[in-house]
Write a structure and sequence with these properties.
heterotrimer; A alpha/beta; B alpha/beta; C alpha/beta; B: alpha/beta; Rossmann fold; 2 domains; 15 strands; about 40% helix; globular; C: alpha/beta; 6 helices; 6 strands
């Protein structure tokens, strides 16, 4: 019998707590596969955030460190400075990274810290029950924007990748999505590249992954995938914003 | 090693490096700047060492959280308002049971306060400004030699108990110069850091540094484990100094630089035939309760002298258990009590307890 | 000597801090108990600076000198105005006459007027005015030997600045002569 698919060794056997239809599981899998394919699983330390992926430390099959809300890039800085030959990554949501942790992510990028950030943007606070995030779209309803996010009250949604791409130390910045198979493949490629950039010591890398939250968006998983494609991508265009030039 | 004349902040940095500290994460704030400046000069000279100027005190303490989790000896320092910002991280470090040494060269408060010497962070240091049931040792050196000795000891103690340790000085300790000598540590046997996030090499199950426990039963179990550890620290690590307390009618309780001033007051009072003495807590937590209880059998009154509006006096009262009258004298905001002021207060007390 | 408590004060740039550090260093080299405590903060940026030095046979208690200075060395007028009152009865007050026009108000002190800047200029560098004052002070109190200060100077200067030692030595000597 030929094995055509098996679960990556990059993830533990633990069943995740994510809601049905949530794309966190897909993103976890991509990161796990990349760590195995690059042969760095045994020398990787991951940093989990506060948010839906707070328990990510139970799922990644490498040493893990659970950070305070928003502080994952600072924790990762500490780890990477101690273990410069190891792979270090943070896995953060939009509340964690784009709200409470803006100083930490901006300055980790600014210092050119040599770790990788997986930034999961689903335009809402999931764990705490669907509050508005800095990335919530205009008109999108959340429990703290019950009439839909308005520019007057909350400003325009924050485009993190575009912002970080202005920082010299952020040498790899790409926004991807996981709403269909071709995009999942592209997402994996970007994640792999980001880790490669780290292992080559080139600087800070971030992959922003557009993700769904059927539970808090209040629609089915399939509708969520379409909603992401139709609403998020027009505002959060996919693509590479920065990549190190070859040979440098 | 010969004695060296060093500024307090630099001596603390040198002691840390002597103790094997290779990583420092900090943010500028007066009056502790010479410490990060010293580390930024010296750590790059050490193989594998690093100094990072963080974007904030919040980030600095979380870098410590990461570095300590990865098994390194590391240090951060700040002053009062910056320490307030570090409380979040200190709580996590205590919760995740990581060793770290944190220096507070304190200044007047509340808020932005001032920059002159003050002891208004006693509550912050001993009660913890962070959330949850946690404790950490607090060393309060009174001289630079003691600061150097305690910083070196702090790294061992932190590793031994897997717990953060605070070294609390004030602007005077940070800024003054005194001769110091770096002595070998007393060689505690330290456990291996087999819990650190150094990579599994795919040979062991992952190590997880964490303070989250969503199951109440598990969290209570964790809290009780921490409490047992804190009891051990209370049992083993209390330190104090008695100065002429045996026959003293009034025992002054003072720590840090204030204790040096109080010692001058004790000497002056003794010359006048007044039996004054001093008990100097060297650890603020655990507080030297037994030392207080001992003098309650012989003294007539206790006087807590602090550069604050009255914080340690609460611990003095608790330890006293209502046996003696407990008085307080304090200056704050960066004002420093003079030996005369303290002596006058003692005379006032003597007048009242005849 | 039981204990000397010295306040040194002047403008930033007059070398008040380093004068205090040298005295402290010299005391340490003679195995005495010493402490040096500076003023710090925004006042250090161009304003007046001062430091408190204690050299003692016994353990140094408070490093703070409030109103119990045994000596004060004042390099400018604001320093005289501020610290004249803090010297104990019978103590020494050394005044840099080059920059301070007024006389001391107290009559219960030993008061010395020293043309520190003039003397320093004669030596060839106004920056050693502090060493002139220190030389005068050491002549008065003898709390440490001049040789110890020179040794401290060499350690502080290091090889790169060792050529400056003779000039500083001369300043110390000229200061001592000035009050003989």
């Amino acid at each position: 019998m030929t094995v055509v698919y098996e679960k990556t060794k990059g993830l533990t056997e633990k069943q995740t707590h994510y809601c049905p239809g949530c794309t966190h599981g897909v993103i976890h899998k991509l990161v796990g596969e990349v760590l195995v394919e690059l042969g760095i699983l045994g020398k990787t330390v991951g940093v989990a955030p506060v948010g839906c992926s707070v328990l990510a430390y139970d799922y990644f099959n490498c040493d893990m460190h659970e950070a305070a809300h928003g502080r994952a890039p600072a924790v990762a800085t500490g780890i990477k400075r101690v273990l410069p030959d190891h792979a270090v990554f943070t896995y953060q949501g939009d509340g964690d990274l784009a709200s409470i942790g803006t100083a930490e992510i901006v300055h980790a990028a600014h210092r050119g810290e040599k770790f990788t950030t997986i930034f999961v943007n689903n335009a809402i606070y999931g764990m705490t029950g669907g509050q508005m995030a800095p990335t919530t779209l205009i008109g999108q309803k959340a429990t703290t924007s019950p009439y839909g996010r308005s520019v007057a009250d909350a400003g325009m949604p924050l485009r993190v990748s575009e912002m970080l791409a202005t920082i010299d130390g952020a040498v790899f910045v790409e926004r991807v999505s996981v709403h269909d198979v071709p995009n999942i493949r592209k997402a994996k490629k970007a994640i792999k590249k980001a880790f490669e950039v780290q292992m080559e010591g080139k600087g800070f890398g971030i992959v922003e992954v557009l993700s769904t939250c059927p539970t808090n968006w209040g629609i089915s998983p399939i509708e969520s995938l379409s909603w992401l494609k139709e609403n998020m991508i027009p505002y959060y265009p996919l693509g590479n914003f920065r990549t190190p030039e070859e040979g440098k | 090693m010969a004695k060296m004349l060093m500024k307090g902040n630099e001596a603390i940095g040198a002691a840390a490096i002597q103790a094997g500290c290779k990583f420092f994460f900090g943010y500028p704030i007066t009056p502790q700047n010479e410490l990060p400046e010293y580390m930024s000069r010296e750590l790059p000279k050490i193989e594998g060492g690093a100094f990072v100027q963080a974007e904030s005190e919040v980030a600095a303490i979380n870098m410590i959280y990461g570095a300590a989790g990865a098994g390194a000896r590391c240090m951060t320092s700040s002053s009062s308002p910056g320490m307030a910002l570090k409380q979040e991280g200190i709580s996590y470090i205590a919760g995740a049971e990581l060793p770290a040494v944190i220096v507070n060269i304190s200044r007047g408060g509340p808020g932005l306060g001032g920059i002159q010497p003050s002891q208004a962070d006693y509550f912050q240091s001993t009660r913890g400004g962070g959330n949850g049931d946690y404790r950490h040792l607090v060393y309060a050196p009174a001289s630079l030699q003691e600061a150097v000795d305690l910083v070196m000891e702090a790294f061992d103690v932190a590793d031994y108990y897997r717990n953060p340790v605070i070294v609390l000085g004030d602007g005077m300790i940070g800024q003054m110069m005194e001769p110091v000598e770096f002595k070998k540590s007393n060689g505690r046997e330290l456990p291996a850091k087999d819990w650190a996030t150094t990579g599994t090499k795919e040979e062991r199950t992952p190590n997880i540094i964490n303070s989250l426990a969503l199951d109440p039963a598990k969290l209570e179990e964790h809290n009780r484990k921490l409490t047992r550890k804190y009891k051990e620290i209370e049992k083993n690590e209390v330190r104090h100094e008695d100065y002429k307390t045996e026959d003293a009618d009034v025992v002054i309780v003072a720590y840090g630089t204030t204790a040096r001033i109080a010692r001058n007051a004790v000497d002056a009072l003794r010359e006048e035939g007044i039996k004054a003495g001093m008990m100097r807590p060297i650890t603020l937590w655990p507080f030297p309760e037994a030392a207080i209880q001992k003098v309650t059998h012989t003294a007539k009154a206790l006087l807590s002298v602090e550069m604050s509006e009255g914080q340690m006096v609460e611990d003095v009262r608790l330890a006293n258990e209502g046996k003696l009258p407990v008085h307080f004298y304090g200056r704050s905001g960066g004002m420093i009590p003079s030996p005369d002021e303290i002596a006058d207060k003692v005379k006032e007390i003597i007048g009242g307890v005849k | 000597m039981a204990e000397e408590k010295i306040i040194m004060a002047g403008f930033g740039g007059q070398g008040v801090m380093s004068m205090g550090q040298l005295l402290t260093y010299a005391g340490m080299l003679e195995d005495k108990n010493v402490s040096w405590l500076p003023s710090y903060g925004p006042e250090m940026r161009g304003g007046t600076a001062n430091c408190s030095v204690i050299v003692s046979e016994k353990q140094v208690g408070s490093p703070v000198i409030t109103n119990d200075a045994t000596s004060a060395i004042v390099m400018n007028l604001p320093s005289l105005d501020k610290f004249e009152k803090d010297v104990v009865e019978g103590g020494n007050l050394l005044i840099n006459e080059s920059l301070i026009e007024r006389k001391a108000e107290r009559s219960d002190l030993s008061i010395y007027y020293i043309k520190a800047n003039e003397i320093a200029n004669e030596i060839g560098n106004s920056k050693v005015a502090n060493m002139v004052m220190l030389g005068a002070y050491l002549e008065l109190t003898k709390i440490v030997k001049v040789e110890s200060v020179i040794e401290a100077l060499k350690k502080v200067f290091g090889p790169a600045k060792e050529h400056l030692v003779p000039m500083n030595k001369e300043a110390l000597e000229r200061g001592a002569e000035s009050i003989k």
